[in-house]
User: Fold this.
Amino acid sequence: MQEKVLVLKVGGMTCEGCVKNVTNILRSIEGVGKAEVSLEKKRATVWFDGGKANEEKIRGAIRREGYLVGDVDLEAR
Assistant:
């Protein structure tokens, strides 16, 4: 298993229901082991098996549900 971590900005979330929706979307992707979504930070952190999932697949799943996806500048935390 090639565990990878992806941190993304997620736009369009307005409530805890959105957080739950994005979390469920991410956890439904084959290869995703863990997903944490923050409404306050507008951020999703995803731990996944790089042999089963990839960044494109994760970003696409979020976009298909109507949310915006961008990169996080980890240096600007």
About this structure: The chain has one domain: 3-76. The mean pLDDT is 93.
